[in-house]
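stage 2 :: seqdesign
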């Protein structure tokens, strides 16, 4: 009886050819020719597949081709997969990197995560269907990252050239200003797409409100919602983030912060709020090269992890506090007095607090400093934290939508004819 080879099986079971409007190119690296043939046969209908039998050949192919994703075997004689990915990282930082390994390669996995910036490691033997899903998800991440980088560069270019254009070409000021505002409004569209619809967040709680008032169209404040399963319980996350600056600069920081938060929770599966803040701090310092440059931009943050099964929440704050109800009282959990990012020589080790809650009764409030720092009133003073507690004390038993209306009315009355001084972000949930 004739025995079919693996290549014949793959050819016979391959899906119909997809017509890609934007074909992607993969580079697969393995020192065994049979493995290269099998991978090529499995995925040539879906992507442009290049193969290399060693690290030096792979590096040369990266330099000669537009490659979006590199997948490499770990154990190779010329150089290991980890060594290859570490070597190509500085020259090709945007290429998605994945590594094939066995369960025994723990040290290689740790090194790959810490030094090589890998997207994912895949255990052997790999399954074609799972591998394709992983590759498609990686390429989707590549596309989103490319779009964000492009937008950031466009906004930076417009922002950096504005003053020169105003000075040198006064007659063109109106046109330049229109182009800038169009770009900022486009940035607002992108930022709004990045932020989850408040109605979707509300579906996860008994009640929820969001008071969100950017100062300059786009905001340096942003909110973040996430979900994960730790193997035992489903955990919901709600975070309030206040980036350095506002407007375009703040919005650029918010996109960086949102991207890192997603990576921490969904890719690295880090679930404790204090660990999320620690990793967010390291990510901001790394992406802004704060160890090399005198740059102290960063963000303040407060994050809740809600475990409904256990009836408890965990809170960690970086220069942000948590207000919650206990019976008919309002109580405050203070965050650590350390921001995220900046001052790389400043040691960080964020703490967290665990609190019980009664479902349907306990309320929690997260907020940035924009509300309490607003100048107003008869004496043009800051609103302050004590007035926030007083205002919440008067409305805490109302439905969240009414609380939102009352808080906004309090803010507008206090501000009066004064200009808004910062982005405003205030959230309340009743679990």
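stage 2 :: out
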């Amino acid at each position: 009886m004739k025995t079919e080879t693996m290549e014949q099986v793959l050819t016979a079971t391959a899906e119909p050819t997809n017509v890609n409007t934007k074909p992607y190119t993969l580079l697969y690296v393995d020192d065994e020719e049979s493995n290269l043939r099998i991978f090529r046969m499995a995925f040539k209908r879906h992507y442009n597949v290049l193969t290399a039998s060693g690290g030096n050949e792979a590096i040369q192919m990266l330099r000669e081709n537009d490659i979006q994703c590199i997948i490499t075997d770990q154990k190779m004689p010329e150089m290991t997969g980890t060594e290859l990915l570490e070597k190509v990282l500085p020259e090709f930082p945007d290429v998605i990197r994945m590594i094939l390994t066995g369960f025994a390669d723990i040290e290689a996995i740790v090194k790959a995560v810490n030094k090589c910036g890998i997207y994912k490691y895949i255990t052997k033997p790999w399954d074609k269907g799972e591998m394709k899903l992983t590759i498609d998800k990686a390429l989707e991440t590549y596309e989103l990252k490319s779009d964000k980088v492009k937008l950031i560069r466009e906004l930076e270019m417009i922002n950096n050239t504005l003053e020169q254009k105003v000075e040198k070409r006064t007659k063109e000021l109106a046109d330049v200003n229109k182009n800038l505002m169009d770009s900022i409004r486009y940035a607002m569209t992108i930022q709004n797409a990045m932020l989850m619809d408040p109605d979707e967040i509300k579906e996860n709680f008994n009640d929820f409100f969001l008071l969100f008032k950017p100062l300059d169209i786009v905001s340096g404040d942003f909110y973040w919602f996430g979900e994960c399963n730790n193997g035992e319980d489903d955990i919901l996350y709600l975070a309030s983030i206040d980036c350095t600056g506002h407007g375009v600069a703040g919005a650029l920081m918010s996109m960086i912060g949102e991207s890192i938060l997603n990576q921490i929770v969904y890719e690295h599966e880090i679930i404790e709020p204090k660990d999320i803040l620690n990793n967010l701090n390291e990510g901001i310092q790394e992406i802004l090269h704060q160890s090399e440059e005198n740059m102290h931009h960063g963000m303040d943050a407060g994050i809740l992890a809600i475990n409904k099964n256990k009836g408890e929440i965990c809170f960690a704050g970086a220069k942000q506090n948590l207000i919650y109800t206990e019976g008919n009282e309002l109580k405050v959990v203070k965050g650590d007095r350390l921001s995220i990012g900046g001052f790389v020589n400043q040691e960080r080790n964020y703490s967290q607090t665990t609190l019980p809650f009664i479902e349907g009764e306990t309320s929690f409030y997260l907020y940035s400093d924009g509300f309490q720092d607003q100048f107003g009133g008869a004496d043009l003073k800051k609103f302050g934290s004590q007035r926030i507690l007083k205002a919440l004390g008067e409305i805490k038993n109302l439905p969240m939508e009414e609380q939102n209306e009352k808080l906004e009315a309090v803010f507008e009355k206090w501000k009066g004819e004064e200009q808004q001084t910062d982005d405003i972000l205030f959230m309340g949930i009743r679990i």
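stage 3 :: structure notes
- The chain has twelve helices and 17 strands.
- The radius of gyration is 25 Å.
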